[in-house]
Protein backbone atom coordinates (compact mmCIF):
# COMPACT_ATOMS: atom_id res chain seq x y z
CA UNK A 1 0.00 0.00 0.00
CA UNK A 2 2.66 2.47 1.10
CA UNK A 3 4.98 1.12 -1.56
CA UNK A 4 2.41 1.92 -4.24
CA UNK A 5 2.02 5.48 -2.98
CA UNK A 6 5.78 5.96 -2.78
CA UNK A 7 6.28 4.53 -6.28
CA UNK A 8 3.64 6.91 -7.62
CA UNK A 9 5.30 9.83 -5.86
CA UNK A 10 8.73 8.86 -7.21
CA UNK A 11 7.29 8.78 -10.71
CA UNK A 12 5.65 12.17 -10.23
CA UNK A 13 8.88 13.67 -8.89
CA UNK A 14 10.79 12.42 -11.93
CA UNK A 15 8.10 13.77 -14.26
CA UNK A 16 8.16 17.09 -12.43
CA UNK A 17 11.89 17.46 -12.98
CA UNK A 18 12.18 16.14 -16.51
CA UNK A 19 9.05 16.31 -18.63
CA UNK A 20 6.73 18.84 -17.04
CA UNK A 21 9.12 21.83 -17.41
CA UNK A 22 8.49 21.45 -21.15
CA UNK A 23 4.72 21.56 -20.69
CA UNK A 24 4.02 25.25 -20.32
CA UNK A 25 0.47 26.54 -20.07
CA UNK A 26 -0.12 30.23 -19.31
CA UNK A 27 3.72 30.42 -19.14
CA UNK A 28 3.96 28.06 -16.17
CA UNK A 29 4.31 24.34 -15.67
CA UNK A 30 1.88 22.20 -13.68
CA UNK A 31 2.93 21.25 -10.14
CA UNK A 32 2.12 17.54 -10.31
CA UNK A 33 3.62 16.60 -6.95
CA UNK A 34 1.91 19.49 -5.21
CA UNK A 35 -1.42 18.53 -6.79
CA UNK A 36 -1.12 14.90 -5.79
CA UNK A 37 -0.16 15.73 -2.22
CA UNK A 38 -2.88 18.35 -1.93
CA UNK A 39 -5.46 15.84 -3.12
CA UNK A 40 -4.18 13.34 -0.56
CA UNK A 41 -4.41 16.04 2.10
CA UNK A 42 -8.03 16.72 1.11
CA UNK A 43 -8.85 13.03 1.27
CA UNK A 44 -6.85 11.93 4.29
CA UNK A 45 -6.23 15.13 6.22
CA UNK A 46 -3.21 17.43 6.27
CA UNK A 47 -1.47 15.82 9.21
CA UNK A 48 -1.69 12.33 7.71
CA UNK A 49 0.13 13.52 4.60
CA UNK A 50 2.94 15.39 6.34
CA UNK A 51 5.49 12.54 6.14
CA UNK A 52 4.74 12.00 2.45
CA UNK A 53 5.07 15.73 1.79
CA UNK A 54 8.44 15.84 3.56
CA UNK A 55 9.82 12.90 1.58
CA UNK A 56 8.46 14.25 -1.72
CA UNK A 57 9.90 17.70 -0.98
CA UNK A 58 13.38 16.36 -0.34
CA UNK A 59 13.12 14.24 -3.50
CA UNK A 60 12.13 17.33 -5.50
CA UNK A 61 15.17 19.21 -4.19
CA UNK A 62 17.47 16.31 -5.01
CA UNK A 63 16.16 16.06 -8.56
CA UNK A 64 16.27 19.80 -9.20
CA UNK A 65 19.45 20.64 -7.32
CA UNK A 66 17.70 23.31 -5.27
CA UNK A 67 18.71 23.81 -1.61
CA UNK A 68 17.74 20.70 0.32
CA UNK A 69 14.69 21.11 2.49
CA UNK A 70 13.30 24.12 0.66
CA UNK A 71 10.66 22.26 -1.34
CA UNK A 72 9.86 20.10 1.69
CA UNK A 73 9.17 23.22 3.75
CA UNK A 74 7.02 24.72 0.99
CA UNK A 75 5.08 21.48 0.54
CA UNK A 76 4.49 21.18 4.27
CA UNK A 77 3.13 24.71 4.44
CA UNK A 78 0.90 23.94 1.44
CA UNK A 79 -0.38 20.71 2.98
CA UNK A 80 -1.14 22.34 6.28
CA UNK A 81 -2.76 25.30 4.53
CA UNK A 82 -4.95 22.84 2.68
CA UNK A 83 -5.68 20.64 5.65
CA UNK A 84 -6.75 23.12 8.27
CA UNK A 85 -9.99 24.15 6.59
CA UNK A 86 -10.72 20.69 5.27
CA UNK A 87 -14.01 19.48 6.66
CA UNK A 88 -15.28 22.97 7.38
CA UNK A 89 -16.39 24.16 3.95
CA UNK A 90 -16.99 22.62 0.58
CA UNK A 91 -16.12 19.24 1.95
CA UNK A 92 -17.88 17.38 -0.79
CA UNK A 93 -17.98 17.92 -4.51
CA UNK A 94 -15.72 18.93 -7.29
CA UNK A 95 -14.94 22.36 -5.83
CA UNK A 96 -12.94 20.97 -2.94
CA UNK A 97 -10.03 19.92 -5.16
CA UNK A 98 -10.03 23.17 -7.14
CA UNK A 99 -10.06 25.39 -4.05
CA UNK A 100 -7.49 23.21 -2.32
CA UNK A 101 -5.15 23.37 -5.32
CA UNK A 102 -5.46 27.16 -5.51
CA UNK A 103 -4.77 27.60 -1.80
CA UNK A 104 -1.91 25.10 -1.90
CA UNK A 105 -0.30 26.86 -4.89
CA UNK A 106 -0.45 30.22 -3.11
CA UNK A 107 1.07 28.69 0.02
CA UNK A 108 3.72 26.69 -1.86
CA UNK A 109 4.94 29.47 -4.16
CA UNK A 110 4.54 32.07 -1.40
CA UNK A 111 6.81 30.04 0.87
CA UNK A 112 9.38 29.70 -1.91
CA UNK A 113 9.32 33.46 -2.51
CA UNK A 114 9.79 34.14 1.20
CA UNK A 115 12.74 31.73 1.23
CA UNK A 116 14.23 33.42 -1.83
CA UNK A 117 13.84 36.85 -0.32
CA UNK A 118 15.40 35.63 2.91
CA UNK A 119 18.48 34.71 0.89
CA UNK A 120 18.58 38.20 -0.68
CA UNK A 121 17.37 37.13 -4.06
CA UNK A 122 15.57 39.56 -6.34
CA UNK A 123 11.84 39.18 -5.67
CA UNK A 124 9.21 41.55 -6.97
CA UNK A 125 6.09 40.33 -5.23
CA UNK A 126 3.44 42.02 -7.40
CA UNK A 127 5.12 40.82 -10.60
CA UNK A 128 5.69 37.32 -9.24
CA UNK A 129 2.09 37.10 -8.04
CA UNK A 130 0.70 38.31 -11.36
CA UNK A 131 3.00 36.51 -13.78
CA UNK A 132 3.81 33.26 -11.97
CA UNK A 133 1.67 32.45 -8.97
CA UNK A 134 -1.75 33.48 -10.33
CA UNK A 135 -1.41 31.53 -13.62
CA UNK A 136 0.03 28.63 -11.69
CA UNK A 137 -2.93 28.62 -9.28
CA UNK A 138 -5.37 28.68 -12.19
CA UNK A 139 -3.59 25.87 -14.03
CA UNK A 140 -3.28 23.75 -10.91
CA UNK A 141 -6.93 24.42 -10.10
CA UNK A 142 -7.98 23.07 -13.49
CA UNK A 143 -5.73 20.04 -13.22
CA UNK A 144 -6.85 19.40 -9.65
CA UNK A 145 -10.13 17.93 -10.86
CA UNK A 146 -8.69 14.88 -12.67
CA UNK A 147 -5.88 14.59 -10.12
CA UNK A 148 -8.30 14.69 -7.21
CA UNK A 149 -10.58 12.08 -8.66
CA UNK A 150 -7.57 9.92 -9.58
CA UNK A 151 -6.22 10.11 -6.04
CA UNK A 152 -9.68 9.37 -4.60
CA UNK A 153 -9.93 6.29 -6.80
CA UNK A 154 -6.46 5.17 -5.76
CA UNK A 155 -7.23 5.78 -2.08
CA UNK A 156 -10.36 3.64 -2.36
CA UNK A 157 -8.42 0.91 -4.16
CA UNK A 158 -5.74 0.92 -1.48
CA UNK A 159 -8.27 1.05 1.33
CA UNK A 160 -6.72 4.20 2.76
CA UNK A 161 -10.01 5.98 3.30
CA UNK A 162 -11.29 3.17 5.54
CA UNK A 163 -8.03 3.16 7.49
CA UNK A 164 -8.23 6.88 8.15
CA UNK A 165 -11.91 6.70 9.06
CA UNK A 166 -11.19 3.86 11.48
CA UNK A 167 -8.28 5.77 13.01
CA UNK A 168 -10.49 8.79 13.54
CA UNK A 169 -13.25 6.70 15.06
CA UNK B 1 -38.04 -49.06 -73.62
CA UNK B 2 -36.39 -46.10 -72.01
CA UNK B 3 -33.06 -46.79 -73.75
CA UNK B 4 -34.76 -47.04 -77.10
CA UNK B 5 -36.48 -43.72 -76.54
CA UNK B 6 -33.19 -42.13 -75.46
CA UNK B 7 -31.36 -43.49 -78.51
CA UNK B 8 -34.15 -42.20 -80.68
CA UNK B 9 -33.76 -38.70 -79.24
CA UNK B 10 -29.96 -38.80 -79.60
CA UNK B 11 -30.29 -39.91 -83.19
CA UNK B 12 -32.79 -37.15 -83.82
CA UNK B 13 -30.48 -34.49 -82.34
CA UNK B 14 -27.48 -35.82 -84.24
CA UNK B 15 -29.40 -35.73 -87.46
CA UNK B 16 -30.64 -32.21 -86.67
CA UNK B 17 -27.12 -31.08 -85.85
CA UNK B 18 -25.61 -32.52 -88.97
CA UNK B 19 -28.47 -31.07 -90.96
CA UNK B 20 -27.85 -27.59 -89.52
CA UNK B 21 -24.13 -28.01 -90.13
CA UNK B 22 -24.79 -28.91 -93.73
CA UNK B 23 -27.15 -25.99 -94.21
CA UNK B 24 -24.62 -23.66 -92.61
CA UNK B 25 -21.90 -24.89 -94.91
CA UNK B 26 -24.21 -24.20 -97.82
CA UNK B 27 -24.68 -20.62 -96.40
CA UNK B 28 -28.37 -21.09 -96.18
CA UNK B 29 -28.73 -20.03 -92.54
CA UNK B 30 -27.17 -16.55 -92.69
CA UNK B 31 -30.45 -14.65 -92.45
CA UNK B 32 -31.78 -16.80 -89.65
CA UNK B 33 -28.45 -16.52 -87.80
CA UNK B 34 -28.71 -12.70 -87.87
CA UNK B 35 -32.23 -12.87 -86.48
CA UNK B 36 -31.23 -15.28 -83.76
CA UNK B 37 -28.29 -13.04 -82.78
CA UNK B 38 -30.58 -10.05 -82.40
CA UNK B 39 -32.80 -12.07 -80.15
CA UNK B 40 -30.10 -13.80 -78.19
CA UNK B 41 -27.36 -11.17 -77.87
CA UNK B 42 -29.02 -9.06 -75.10
CA UNK B 43 -29.53 -12.16 -73.07
CA UNK B 44 -25.98 -13.22 -73.86
CA UNK B 45 -24.69 -9.85 -72.80
CA UNK B 46 -26.62 -10.01 -69.56
CA UNK B 47 -25.39 -13.48 -68.93
CA UNK B 48 -21.82 -12.47 -69.76
CA UNK B 49 -22.07 -9.45 -67.47
CA UNK B 50 -23.42 -11.56 -64.65
CA UNK B 51 -20.70 -14.13 -65.22
CA UNK B 52 -18.08 -11.37 -65.20
CA UNK B 53 -19.42 -10.08 -61.92
CA UNK B 54 -19.55 -13.52 -60.47
CA UNK B 55 -15.95 -14.07 -61.58
CA UNK B 56 -14.93 -10.73 -60.03
CA UNK B 57 -16.65 -11.59 -56.79
CA UNK B 58 -15.03 -15.00 -56.76
CA UNK B 59 -11.63 -13.46 -57.49
CA UNK B 60 -12.22 -10.93 -54.70
CA UNK B 61 -13.12 -13.71 -52.29
CA UNK B 62 -10.02 -15.59 -53.36
CA UNK B 63 -7.82 -12.50 -52.96
CA UNK B 64 -8.98 -11.54 -49.44
CA UNK B 65 -6.17 -13.55 -47.92
CA UNK B 66 -3.64 -11.86 -50.21
CA UNK B 67 -5.10 -8.46 -49.44
CA UNK B 68 -4.86 -9.09 -45.72
CA UNK B 69 -1.23 -10.07 -46.01
CA UNK B 70 -0.48 -7.06 -48.24
CA UNK B 71 -2.33 -4.79 -45.82
CA UNK B 72 -0.34 -6.08 -42.88
CA UNK B 73 2.93 -5.65 -44.76
CA UNK B 74 2.00 -2.10 -45.78
CA UNK B 75 0.98 -1.25 -42.24
CA UNK B 76 4.32 -2.49 -40.96
CA UNK B 77 6.14 -0.53 -43.64
CA UNK B 78 4.10 2.54 -42.78
CA UNK B 79 5.00 2.21 -39.10
CA UNK B 80 8.66 1.78 -39.94
CA UNK B 81 8.62 4.79 -42.27
CA UNK B 82 6.85 6.92 -39.66
CA UNK B 83 9.43 5.87 -37.10
CA UNK B 84 12.25 6.65 -39.51
CA UNK B 85 10.66 10.02 -40.28
CA UNK B 86 10.50 10.91 -36.60
CA UNK B 87 14.09 9.78 -36.07
CA UNK B 88 15.22 11.81 -39.07
CA UNK B 89 13.39 14.87 -37.82
CA UNK B 90 14.99 14.46 -34.38
CA UNK B 91 18.40 13.95 -35.96
CA UNK B 92 17.81 17.03 -38.10
CA UNK B 93 17.06 19.12 -35.05
CA UNK B 94 20.07 17.70 -33.21
CA UNK B 95 22.22 18.35 -36.24
CA UNK B 96 21.04 21.96 -36.44
CA UNK B 97 21.66 22.39 -32.72
CA UNK B 98 25.16 20.93 -33.02
CA UNK B 99 25.90 23.19 -35.98
CA UNK B 100 24.89 26.21 -33.95
CA UNK B 101 27.11 25.05 -31.09
CA UNK B 102 29.96 24.59 -33.55
CA UNK B 103 29.40 28.11 -34.84
CA UNK B 104 29.54 29.34 -31.25
CA UNK B 105 32.83 27.49 -30.65
CA UNK B 106 34.25 29.06 -33.79
CA UNK B 107 33.11 32.50 -32.65
CA UNK B 108 34.82 32.03 -29.30
CA UNK B 109 37.83 29.88 -30.16
CA UNK B 110 39.95 30.95 -27.20
CA UNK B 111 38.08 28.65 -24.82
CA UNK B 112 37.81 24.89 -24.59
CA UNK B 113 34.39 23.30 -24.33
CA UNK B 114 32.82 20.06 -23.29
CA UNK B 115 29.40 19.16 -24.72
CA UNK B 116 26.61 18.11 -22.39
CA UNK B 117 22.89 17.45 -22.50
CA UNK B 118 20.30 18.81 -20.13
CA UNK B 119 18.57 15.86 -18.48
CA UNK B 120 16.47 17.57 -15.81
CA UNK B 121 15.17 20.99 -14.95
CA UNK B 122 13.76 22.78 -11.96
CA UNK B 123 10.78 21.36 -10.14
CA UNK B 124 8.93 24.62 -9.49
CA UNK B 125 8.02 27.72 -11.43
CA UNK B 126 10.12 30.14 -9.42
CA UNK B 127 13.56 28.58 -9.34
CA UNK B 128 14.68 27.00 -12.61
CA UNK B 129 17.68 24.70 -12.29
CA UNK B 130 19.38 22.50 -14.86
CA UNK B 131 21.01 19.12 -14.52
CA UNK B 132 23.63 18.05 -17.06
CA UNK B 133 24.52 14.49 -18.01
CA UNK B 134 28.23 15.21 -17.55
CA UNK B 135 29.96 15.43 -14.19
CA UNK B 136 33.28 15.50 -12.41
CA UNK B 137 34.34 12.28 -14.14
CA UNK B 138 34.08 14.16 -17.45
CA UNK B 139 36.09 17.14 -16.25
CA UNK B 140 33.19 19.33 -15.23
CA UNK B 141 33.84 21.38 -12.08
CA UNK B 142 31.79 23.73 -9.96
CA UNK B 143 32.07 27.29 -11.17
CA UNK B 144 32.42 26.52 -14.87
CA UNK B 145 30.25 28.56 -17.20
CA UNK B 146 27.65 26.85 -19.38
CA UNK B 147 26.66 28.25 -22.76
CA UNK B 148 24.42 27.31 -25.64
CA UNK B 149 24.60 28.46 -29.23
CA UNK B 150 23.12 31.84 -28.31
CA UNK B 151 25.10 32.73 -25.23
CA UNK B 152 25.36 32.27 -21.49
CA UNK B 153 23.10 29.68 -19.87
CA UNK B 154 24.48 29.69 -16.33
CA UNK B 155 27.11 28.31 -14.04
CA UNK B 156 27.82 24.87 -12.65
CA UNK B 157 27.15 24.99 -8.92
CA UNK B 158 27.70 21.33 -8.11
CA UNK B 159 29.52 18.62 -9.99
CA UNK B 160 28.83 15.06 -8.91
CA UNK B 161 30.58 12.15 -10.52
CA UNK B 162 28.34 11.79 -13.56
CA UNK B 163 25.96 14.74 -13.36
CA UNK B 164 26.31 18.44 -12.73
CA UNK B 165 23.79 20.96 -11.44
CA UNK B 166 23.67 24.34 -13.16
CA UNK B 167 22.29 27.58 -11.77
CA UNK B 168 20.81 29.19 -14.89
CA UNK B 169 20.73 32.92 -15.39
CA UNK B 170 16.93 32.81 -15.16
CA UNK B 171 17.13 31.77 -11.51
CA UNK B 172 16.71 34.63 -9.03
CA UNK B 173 19.83 33.45 -7.20
CA UNK B 174 21.96 34.16 -10.28
CA UNK B 175 24.06 37.33 -10.56
CA UNK B 176 26.11 37.97 -13.67
CA UNK B 177 28.55 40.86 -13.91
CA UNK B 178 27.96 42.32 -17.36
CA UNK B 179 28.64 45.28 -19.58
CA UNK B 180 26.62 46.83 -22.35
CA UNK B 181 28.23 47.04 -25.74
CA UNK B 182 27.04 50.51 -26.71
CA UNK B 183 29.66 51.09 -29.37
CA UNK B 184 31.01 54.13 -27.57
CA UNK B 185 31.68 52.64 -24.16
CA UNK B 186 31.16 49.72 -21.87
CA UNK B 187 28.86 50.70 -19.01
CA UNK B 188 28.65 47.85 -16.56
CA UNK B 189 25.91 46.40 -14.41
CA UNK B 190 24.64 43.17 -12.94
CA UNK B 191 22.21 40.88 -14.72
CA UNK B 192 19.70 39.33 -12.37
CA UNK B 193 16.42 37.51 -12.81
CA UNK B 194 13.09 38.61 -11.44
CA UNK B 195 10.44 35.86 -11.22
CA UNK B 196 7.74 36.81 -13.67
CA UNK B 197 9.66 39.85 -14.85
CA UNK B 198 12.51 38.27 -16.76
CA UNK B 199 16.18 39.21 -17.03
CA UNK B 200 17.03 42.61 -15.61
CA UNK B 201 20.20 44.66 -15.94
CA UNK B 202 20.64 46.44 -12.62
CA UNK B 203 23.16 49.00 -11.42
CA UNK B 204 23.94 50.50 -14.83
CA UNK B 205 25.05 54.09 -14.36
CA UNK B 206 22.29 56.65 -14.79
CA UNK B 207 24.26 58.61 -17.38
CA UNK B 208 25.29 55.59 -19.44
CA UNK B 209 24.11 55.88 -23.07
CA UNK B 210 22.09 52.67 -23.16
CA UNK B 211 19.76 51.99 -26.06
CA UNK B 212 17.17 49.34 -26.79
CA UNK B 213 18.80 46.61 -28.86
CA UNK B 214 22.25 46.93 -27.27
CA UNK B 215 24.01 43.65 -26.53
CA UNK B 216 24.80 42.82 -22.92
CA UNK B 217 27.91 40.68 -22.47
CA UNK B 218 29.67 39.14 -19.51
CA UNK B 219 32.25 41.56 -18.16
CA UNK B 220 34.41 39.08 -16.30
CA UNK B 221 34.40 41.38 -13.26
CA UNK B 222 34.67 39.38 -10.05
CA UNK B 223 36.17 36.50 -11.98
CA UNK B 224 32.93 34.56 -11.94
CA UNK B 225 32.38 34.25 -15.69
CA UNK B 226 34.67 34.50 -18.72
CA UNK B 227 34.47 37.84 -20.47
CA UNK B 228 32.46 38.60 -23.61
CA UNK B 229 29.85 35.85 -23.64
CA UNK B 230 26.46 37.22 -24.75
CA UNK B 231 23.90 37.40 -21.95
CA UNK B 232 21.04 39.19 -23.67
CA UNK B 233 19.82 42.26 -25.53
CA UNK B 234 18.21 45.32 -24.04
CA UNK B 235 14.49 45.31 -24.86
CA UNK B 236 13.35 48.08 -22.53
CA UNK B 237 14.89 50.75 -20.32
CA UNK B 238 13.52 52.54 -17.30
CA UNK B 239 14.87 55.26 -15.08
CA UNK B 240 13.25 57.83 -12.81
CA UNK B 241 14.78 61.26 -12.36
CA UNK B 242 15.88 60.48 -8.81
CA UNK B 243 17.39 57.09 -9.60
CA UNK B 244 21.14 56.61 -9.48
CA UNK B 245 20.95 53.68 -11.85
CA UNK B 246 19.16 52.66 -15.00
CA UNK B 247 17.26 49.43 -15.19
CA UNK B 248 17.28 47.47 -18.45
CA UNK B 249 14.95 44.63 -19.26
CA UNK B 250 16.73 42.00 -21.35
CA UNK B 251 15.81 39.30 -23.83
CA UNK B 252 18.08 36.35 -23.10
CA UNK B 253 20.65 35.50 -25.74
CA UNK B 254 20.44 31.80 -24.94
CA UNK B 255 17.37 29.72 -25.65
CA UNK B 256 17.25 28.41 -22.10
CA UNK B 257 13.82 26.84 -22.31
CA UNK B 258 14.31 24.90 -25.53
CA UNK B 259 17.98 24.07 -26.00
CA UNK B 260 18.91 20.62 -24.78
CA UNK B 261 22.52 20.58 -25.96
CA UNK B 262 24.95 22.92 -24.20
CA UNK B 263 28.67 23.49 -23.84
CA UNK B 264 30.56 23.63 -20.57
CA UNK B 265 33.47 26.08 -20.72
CA UNK B 266 36.13 23.84 -19.24
CA UNK B 267 39.12 26.18 -19.27
CA UNK B 268 37.59 28.70 -16.92
CA UNK B 269 37.13 28.21 -13.20
CA UNK B 270 36.18 31.24 -11.15
CA UNK B 271 39.02 33.04 -9.49
CA UNK B 272 39.06 33.01 -5.71
CA UNK B 273 39.00 36.57 -4.53
CA UNK B 274 41.37 37.52 -1.70
CA UNK B 275 38.52 37.69 0.81
CA UNK B 276 37.60 34.09 0.00
CA UNK B 277 41.13 32.75 0.09
CA UNK B 278 42.01 30.67 3.15
Largest sheet, spatial ordering of strands of chain B? 1-2-5-4-3-12
The number of E-state strands of chain B comes to: 12
The mean pLDDT of chain A is: 86
Instruction: Give the strand tally of chain A.
Output: 0
Portion in strands of chain A: under 5%
Total domain count of chain B: 2
How does the helix and strand content of chain B classify structurally?
Answer: alpha+beta
Q: What overall form of chain B do the CA principal axes indicate?
A: rod-shaped
Rg of chain A to the nearest angstrom?
15 Å
Structural class of chain A: mainly alpha
Outline the structure in words:
The complex is a heterodimer of chains A (169) and B (278). By secondary structure, chain A is an all-alpha fold. Chain A has one domain (2-168): Arp2/3 complex 21 kDa subunit ARPC3 (Orthogonal Bundle). Chain A is 77% helix and 0% strand. The longest helix of chain A has 34 residues, at 125-158. Chain A is globular. The mean pLDDT of chain A is 86. Chain B is α+β, with helices and mostly antiparallel strands. Chain B folds into two domains: 1-107, no CATH class; 113-265, Thrombin, subunit H (Beta Barrel). Chain B has helices spanning 2-25, 30-107, and strands at 113-121, 130-132, 145-147, 152-159, 164-168, 176-181, 188-194, 198-205, 215-218, 230-238, 245-252, 261-265. In chain B, strand 10 and strand 11 form a beta hairpin. Chains A and B meet through helix 1, helix 3, helix 5 and helix 6 of A and strand 1 and strand 7 of B.
Descriptors:
heterodimer; A: 169 residues; mainly alpha; Arp2/3 complex 21 kDa subunit ARPC3; 77% helix; B: 278 residues; alpha+beta; Thrombin, subunit H; six-stranded antiparallel β-barrel; six-stranded antiparallel barrel; 37% helix; rod-shaped
List the helices and strands and how they pair.
The complex is a heterodimer of chains A (169) and B (278).
Chain A: H1 2-18, H2 32-44, H3 46-64, H4 70-83, H5 95-118, H6 125-158, H7 160-168
Helix pairs in contact in A: 1-3, 2-3, 2-4, 2-5, 2-6, 3-4, 4-5, 5-6
Chain B: H1 2-25, H2 30-107, E1 113-121, E2 130-132, E3 145-147, E4 152-159, E5 164-168, E6 176-181, E7 188-194, E8 198-205, E9 215-218, E10 230-238, E11 245-252, E12 261-265
Antiparallel strand pairs in B: 1-2, 1-12, 2-5, 3-4, 3-12, 4-5, 6-7, 6-9, 7-8, 8-11, 9-10, 10-11
